[in-house]
Amino acid sequence: xxxxxxxxxxxxxxxxxxxxxxxxxxxxxxxxxxxxxxxxxxxxxxxxxxxxxxxxxxxxxxxxxxxxxxxxxxxxxxxxxxxxxxxxxxxxxxxxxxxxxxxxxxxxxxxxxxxxxxxxxxxxxxxxxxxxxxxxxxxxxxxxxxxxxxxxxxxxxxxxxxxxxxxxxxxxxxxxxxxxxxxxxxxxxxxxxxxxxxxxxxxxxxxxxxxxxxxxxxxxxxxxxxxxxxxxxxxxxxxxxxxxxxxxxxxxxxxxxxxxxxxxxxxxxxxxxxxxxxxxxxxxxxxxxxxxxxxxxxxxxxxxxxxxxxxxxxxxxxxxxxxxxxxxxxxxxxxxxxxxxxxxxxxxxxxxxxx
Length: 355
What we know:
The chain is of the alpha/beta class. The chain has helices at about 5, 25-30, 35-45, 70-80, 95-100, 155, 160-165, 180-195, 205-215, 245-250, 275-280, 295-305, 310-325, 325-345, 345-355; strands at about 20-25, 45-50, 60-65, 85, 105, 120-125, 135, 170-175, 195-205, 225, 240, 260, 285, 305-310. A 7-stranded parallel β-sheet has the order 3-2-1-4-5-6-7. It has a 7-stranded parallel β-sheet with strand order 10-11-9-8-12-13-14.
């Protein structure tokens, strides 16, 4: 025992020794509430060790691991956990498994090293991760217990007949929130100059629909309101199709070429973004810079199945590529749908593996 140990400077925080120890990074920890609560309910002695420079302000016992691998491993040897769960992390942390000297599980593994250290089970969030013998469980941090029911309305899509026959693209700014519609119009204006198309715009909150519509008059774009369409088809000269009702908001996902998810464009957005519905309809999704800590959105970004724009310029570039390259658009949409279908029930599947 060294002098620092004798003086108590190396004393472990209470609750770490003999715990169910979850080793992860701050970004994953921010999405891990459901997993931690489930583990705590099952084992009752969950503690955390952060492998990066992040922090934790919750109620579980917590330790920041040293950056040096040998010092971090020495901490694990001292903690002597009852079980070890590595959440995310790359193979540079593989030495922690041997140092802990207890049964270990590697969840959301990122590379092949996780499969080489004797874990009881190694899981990945999706196929194609390059981790031998890993179980494809989905991401337990995505928060998907079950997939939403999707609505398909062929007659509604028929309203776009003139746009389709005229070779126009159709983009959907769906479920927009506070201060997002001006951004949508700015992006659409640039896309129109690139290639003529139709924007469908649907604010999420019914109370905002009338004020947003009146404000949009300043853009002087020919607009038809869904509830007041008096013909069978949206005329080819229409630039904006404005939706004010919940039913067509959901059903129109099936009719468009791509979706820009509302509640992701501006930090003032209050509603939860919906990326699951358009993905299940097989539509590519673009998201903006807001609400990237939303569990499903964060998981989708990590998996690379949605396109992320940090500003209007990047969102425009993504939309332009989807318009210009239908094969790329279809490939992205198919990848996203396959990924999402793997996520439902992932938390339950992962926890069932841990003993």
